[in-house]
Structure formats: structure tokens, C-alpha cells
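Anyone? Bumping this.
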Amino acid sequence: MLNSTLKQLSVLLAQKKLSSVELTQSCLDRVARLDPGLNAFVTIDAERSLAQARAADASIASGKAQPLTGIPLAHKDIFCAAGWRTTCGSKMLANFVSPYDAHVVEQLNAAGAVILGKTNMDEFAMGSSSETCFWGPVKNPWDRGRVPGGSSGGSAVAVAARMAPAAIGTDTGGSIRQPAAFSGICGLKPTYGVVSRYGMIAFASSLDQGGPMAKSAEDLALMLNVMAGFDARDSTSLARPTEDYTRMLDAPTEADRAKPLAGLRIGVPKEYFGDGLGSDVAAAVEAALVQFEKLGAKRVAVNLPNSGLSVPAYYVIAPAEASSNLSRFDGVRYGYRAAEYSDLADMYAKSRAQGFGAEVKRRILIGTYVLSHGYYDAYYLKAQKIRRLIAQDFVEAFKRCDLIMGPTAPSVAFGLGSMSADPVQMYLNDIYTTAANLAGLPAMSIPCGFGEGSMPVGLHLAGNYFAEARMLQVAHQYQLATDWHLRQPAGVA
Amino acid sequence: MAWETVIGIETHAQLSTVSKIFSGAATQFGAPPNVQACAVDIALPGVLPVLNRGAVERAIRFGLAVGSNINRRSVFARKNYFYPDLPKGYQISQYELPVVLGGSLSMPVGDGEKTVRLTRAHLEEDAGKSLHEDFHGMSGIDLNRAGTPLLEIVTEPDMGSAEEAVAYAKALHALVRWIGICDGNMQEGSFRCDANVSVRRPGAPLGTRCEIKNLNSFRFLEEAINYEVRRQIELLEDGGTVVQETRLYDPDRKQTRSMRSKEDAHDYRYFPDPDLLPLVISAETIEQIRSELPELPQAKRARYMREFELSAYDAGVLTSAREVADFYEDLIAALGGGYKLAASWITGELFGALKRAGLEISQSPVGSRQLAGLLQQIQKQVISGKTAKDVFDAMWNGEGEAAAIIAAKGLTQISDAGALEQIIDGVLAANPKSVEEYRAGKEKAFNALVGQAMKATRGKGNPAQINEILKKKLAG
């Protein structure tokens, strides 16, 4: 049951072979058994979850079931959910109980999904390893001595260890895709503006995008159908006609069933296969590309000449926005306030010094610096110009191809604590993922093999704006032909 | 050698929208603390701003009224600083690209007219309020005002005296009320001025300026500028230098005092707000708003002088506020003319009574239609202007319409020539001394005879007719 896809679970629920209460309870049991060793969840509230499950069972009984009705989902602790403690992985919000639902949470609740719990994450989504969490690091179920990636590491592990059938995460520079790759699951970051940011605690507003994390591309599509949609409360939300992201999954581009992806042009940027890429990852990605060719796709060489600038540009823009976004955490109205202070300035200083962790403080400092008088033009403005160049690279590339593929991360999951001393080395983990955020493009990661230490490798797919349905189709066809996405870690059976 | 004063003014006009600039919370003044602060206003984690179109429309209306360029694309920026009544830790404002650029405002000063150029006007949100009393050494925060829409209107340094500065502020105040974008309530903080003041020798470059913040009355504006000019001149004449700084005016001591110097100035780290898209305004929107713009006070004033032959003074008073002009126009419409009569009654009797009662024209117990009823009685010569003042007082006291009061009190004017001749014959017979004096060339005696005749009619005689008959009889 725990290996079932959302579609299979949906059928079982509809046929009343399984109730949402049973499914939810079995997930809760598994969390209780496995999570002490993995630390994927920050908050579990069984009563609240089971109440939602009972309501879901009632709506199934009355014939009002929708595809996600009754399915428990793990929520990254960055999404505000009414009545749930919402900490964003920080001491600053350790006791913050949200009075309202994020748009995404509203949509999932309205679809009858159950909140299984809130998942651990890098503090304020700042990290690539889920080690900066106030609640302690998340462990990779494939090897507990390794990180699961970040920042949506808890959500990735919840799915990888089969504690939740699927999860929701957010991606500012790769925070859905990189942990999906490290944990051997699938994750999608939609086109900027497809999923409302309302109620998603902001890290870098112009880059943040919520998205689904699941075992298969098909499940991602079912999730995105509910998560996407215009929301007037987010000025950057896009008003577009409702789209069924599952519509293309089973529709090969040509009649030849043996070559379902015939006509697909896969752009392979040479910049993605240079120095710094692990040979194990390169081999797995190459094998995947060969598999796509077998399915009828063609490889096209493309150039993304500015891709090397994406990490530097990202690490100026994201901290700049974060430094301002995190100013509201001042100890005045909610959140952590230092116990002792001498005056107002001291209250701010102590509350923020004690309430934020080291990585968050580092990024606030970087962001404050690059926005400062005299440095703004040299850093922030220049980074914005580079951002446009990067977006322009993709416009050019997509004239020659339909999708761009490459590795999601330069290596498989690294050891816990192995990069903590060197932030720049850590930031370079985002080398293949940040460009999609800077350009606002949809991108996803799917499992494509194993590398060093038998750790999963992720294949990265980036599409043109609003190409989600096509990307999901391509991934789904790959998953019909391969079984990498069905593999699960041995240690958590 | 003389000193020259240079003043520029920044005004924060609170826009009269029902809800806030980036949230749906109400903007009404005077509610209990924090009841008008929603999740967005208190900056809960995850909330986002959504621009109120009503605030944008009002900014455009202002820009069109002062002949500005409306920027087709403007940008909201974040001004970052920490303060407890600033919930997000930044204020959303417009920085590099404001919605309104340029324009000017002209107003009468003394006998002439002064034109003040505007630099820009931009949209921004107000902060909340910190309350430092009643909390046992702690501060209370009221976020009802947080997110209230403001239009900050900035002038060039075009004013040369406190008098000109006050004239500008009054004209701006009248204009924002006139076009319905701000209620202008200065006690409630809906209209506040900051004055940038410097002095220099004529012809010299601009001197170092000081900014006096938050002047919420015309009197404080005047007093603060006059104090500040004196302070700077004395400082310079004693060989000192003016330090660029922000100052506050203390109305009790009638002094400005330093609030913070330039060295303490924040680095606000402005950058475009990534939560808000650039504000794009279509040409159609601008034209739509232009077509709905009312006739502006300056144009109306000129038209009153041209079409109705009013004096500059009367035309100025009648166009001092939209409500006054509306009252005047309703009145002359009801009268079908009587431009000067209507003007003198509004600026005379009506304003006098309103002032004594401490009322605004909109609160007048005598409305334009009732006043028209009274003035018609004068036009039809049913009563004299003098009697009309008594009738007006009765109307003010709620005794009814003019015609009914005249009938009830028997105030109808005597215009019957035969009856008046008879009365005047009696007056002439009873006052031979006055008659003799008049005939001897004493003009004053004539007035005494008019007075006697009016007295004999118990004030109801038609004064023009009495004059005429008297002249005829005395000449005869």
C-alpha cells in the first residue's frame, strides 16, 4: 500500500477497499516507527489529521470524492496551515501557530487531502542539505550518514521512506529538485506564478515557487492540478485558464508506441557536463539520455553561456530579498523575543541574534551588504542584469530544443556535516538548479540511476514557460520504460 | 545685507480610499487600537501585498489636476528600517519611478499670484502608531493606520517665505479636497507637511537645509518656518554653519529642535518590491480619469470673474472649497441669476453665521435652496435687504422658509407708491428742520429723512422708492 501511487490509492479509496482513516493511520504509524531516525517531521498532530481523514471518508461516502480526497500529504513547514504550528525550521517561529491557510493549503484541503504533518527543512529554506534546521538535521533514508538535500529535505524523506504518499515543498534555487535527486524521488518546480505564494513564508519573493514532491511524474501531475491556480492575494500569481497537467501523460507524440517520444528534441548544454560534475552522476545522466533516445527523442547540443554566473547572481539576489523579507521577524508582534534586553535596539539585536541560526544570519548580512548605499549597483543591479542574460540564454536554447536535460546536482548526497564548514562549496551544489528560478522556468528532477555509495542520482529537466504538462509527459514515458523511480531505500522497509 | 529664504515642502496626503493600499482592512479614523489591522497589515509570515486600484486612481487624479506627467510605468520599492510600528520592517513606497512627475500649483499671495513647481508625487503606505503613555514604561503599538494609502507630494524649493509656504499648503489642501482624493482633516493627520528650509545671500548657491517634520496645521507651518529662518540667520551671522538635519517643531515652546542629523540618516536599502509588479497605467485609464475630473478651482475662479463679474476676492472665497462653490452654483441655479447678490450673501451673512456657530458650509441649517427662497423675495422687492437679514436669522433658527416667515411676521415691503407718498408727506410735515437743512445743501439731512420714512413704515418701505419719492418732493 505504501508503495502505491496516488492514482492507485485514489482507486482503493473510491472502491472503499481502504479508508482515509486507515491510510492516514498507517502513515502515522510509519512516521512513529521510522521518523525518530530520520527527523523528517517537525510537527505531527494525529488527531487533527484523523479528523480530516474522517471528513474525507464522509465525502467519499457521499460520492463527492476528488482525485486527492482522503490522501495524506506531508507539508513542508514553510506553508501556513490554520491551527498548525508553522516554524519554517526556525527557533524564531518555534511557537508560531498560523491563524490562516496558505493558498496551496486551502486548495489541498478543499480537494479533500489530509495534512499528515509538517516537515523539517533548512531554516527559512536557506540551505541545500537540511542541516540548518532548528529541529536538527534530516537524515537520508538511503544512508543515514548522508544528507537528504535541502531545503525541502523533510518532504523528500517523507516520500522516499514511504511515510507519506506525496508531499509539498518550495523551490527558490533548487530546494525541491535537489532533495528529490538526493532522496531518489520526483520533484517539480512550476513556472514562476503558477502556484500562489500566499501563505508560503517568503525567502526570496522573485524566486520562490511551491511545487509537488512524489514518487512518480504522474503523481506530480495530480498534485499540480490541485496546487496550481490564480490567486488574487498574490500579485505575481498568473491568471491563466485552468490546465489539466495529466492530459498529456499517456499521449505519445506519434502513433509509434515503441517510440513514444519521437520528435522530442532534448537540449544538452555542454556547460552542464564540465568540471565539478561527478563521473558517477555523469554516467547515470548519460544512460538516461540514451534511454530517451531509445524512446524516440533526439539529442541537440545547446549553449547556456551564462550558466556559470547563475550561482553568483542567485547568491546576490536571493539574500537581498531575504534580508528584507526576514525583517518582519523582529520579536514585536509574534515569534521569538529575547528574554532580557535593555532597550528597543537591544531587543531587536538579541531577539534576531538568538532567534536566527548561522546560515540565516549569513544570508541576511550578505543581502544587507549588497543592497547598501554604494554597493547596490555593483552587486544587486549587476545580478539583475545577469539574471536577464540567463533568461535570454534559455530563450535562445528553446528555439532549438523542447526540453533541456542534465544532472540535478553535481554529486550524489554528501555526508552529514561534510560541507558545513565551507558555505561556497555548499552553494555550488545549486549550480544546475538556480538558473530555472532566475529565469522563472519550470524544472523537475526524476530518479535516473545510482552513483557512488549506491546513492540515487537525479535527472534534471527544464522546460519553456508553462511546459509543465509536456515535461510531465516526457518524464512519465521515461518512467513507463524504467523503474528507477520505484526503487526504495532498503533500510526503511 | 539681506537674507533670502528658500523653502520646499513635502506633503503627505492620506488618500480617501475605504480600504488600505495593500490590504482589505478599513481605513476609518478613530477605531479602537488594532481592530483595523488584518493579517497583511500586521505582516504575518507568508502574507503578500495587493495594490488598491482606488489609491492609484486618486494619484492619477491629482497628477492631472496639477498638470503633471503620469508615469505609464512606475515601481514600488521597499524602504527598509526597523521600528515597532512598521510591521514588515520595510515601508512600501515609490522611489526611483514615482507615479506622478512634475506639474505645478498656482495660488494668490498678497496682490499677486505665485506658482510653485512640483517635483513629483508618489504612492506609499503609512506606518502604525507607537503609544508611549499608559503602558507602565512599555510602548503600545496601534496598527490601525499601518498600510493607509498616502500620496507624498514634493515641491521644488520655490517658496521664499512662510507666507508663500502657507499659501501653497492651503491651496494644495483645498485642491486635494476639491478633487476628492483626501478629506484634508489635519487634526486626524490626513494632511501633514514637512518643510525644507534654508537661507542664503541673494544670488548665492542654495544654503544647507533643515527639514522640519510633521507640521499638521497651517499655523505651525508658519511659526516653524519663521523660527527656523531666524535660527539659521542668527547662526550664520554669528559665524556658525547650518548642519543638515531633521528637526521637529515644538508648538508649546514655538521652537524647532534637532531630531537626527545627516550622519544618523538611515541607509534605507531601497530596492524594487518583488511582491508587486511594476504599476502599469494605460492611456485609456488616464483619459477616463481626466474626463471625470471636476472643473478645478483656478478655472472656476477665473470663470466666476469673467461670466458673473465677481470681484477677485469673492471669486476666490467662493472657490476656496468645492462645497462652497457647489453651494454657490446651486444657489444661482435656483435663482436663475443673481450672481452678485448670491455671492455677497454667501460671503457675508452665511459665512458670518457659520463662523459664529463654528459650522462648515455642509452643516449649514440654511441650505442653498432655502437661501434662494429668501433672495427671491429681495429680487421681487417683497422685502428689503435689511429685512432679509432678520428673515435669515429666523430661518437660521429653524422658523421655516423665507416666504412663510415674511407672511407670518407681516414683513412684506410697502412698494405701493400712493401709500408711500402719503407716509412721506407726513414725514416732511413733521420734520421741517431737516427739510430746510437739505435745501440749504446739507446732504446728511436727506439720510435723516429716509430714516424717518423707514421708521414710519416700520422698516417695510421699499428703500429705493422712498429715496425716489423724497428726492422728487424735496426738489418740487
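Late reply, but here is one note on the structure posted above: The longest strand of chain A covers residues 443-450.
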